[in-house]
Amino acid sequence: MAKLKTGRHTSALKEARKSLGRKEHNKVIHSKIRTLIKKVEDAAAKKDSDGAKNLLKTVFSELDKAARKNILHSNNAANQKSRLSKLVKSIAA
């Protein structure tokens, strides 16, 4: 494709389209993580330590994947993991 009459380059337009796709993908992952975190917190509120521990493994996995792919900052993922661990540990005791 040639340069457009408006002066914008096609590569910039393509990059804008790609960024919209990435935004949607990242939004799905953020939503999934938030939902899992809420489930862990609900299980902790109900004093269901076994359920919370099982969910915690899933949340850790998702947080690690998101951090590895730079969807979340690695420190953010670590802070979330620490907070949830402390919460689950408090109900187990």
Q: In CATH's first tier, which class applies? A: Mainly Alpha
Briefly note the CATH topology name. Answer: Methane Monooxygenase Hydroxylase, Chain G, domain 1
* CATH homologous superfamily assignment: Ribosomal protein S20
How many distinct folded domains?
1
Write down the Rg.
19 Å
Q: Give the integer mean of the pLDDT values.
A: 91
Outline: elongated
Structural class of the secondary structure composition?
mainly alpha
**N-to-C order of helices and strands:** HHH
Largest sheet: none
CATH architecture: Up-down Bundle
Beta-strand percent range? under 5%
Indicate the percent of residues in helices: over 70%
N-to-C CA distance: 65 Å
How many DSSP H or I helices? 3
**What are the low-pLDDT stretches, counting only 5+ consecutive residues below 50?**
none
Structural description of this entry:
- It is elongated and about 70 Å long.
- It has a single domain (10-92), classed as Up-down Bundle (Methane Monooxygenase Hydroxylase, Chain G, domain 1).
- The protein has helices at 10-45, 49-68, 74-92.
- With 93 residues, the protein is an all-alpha fold.
- It is built from three helices and no strands.
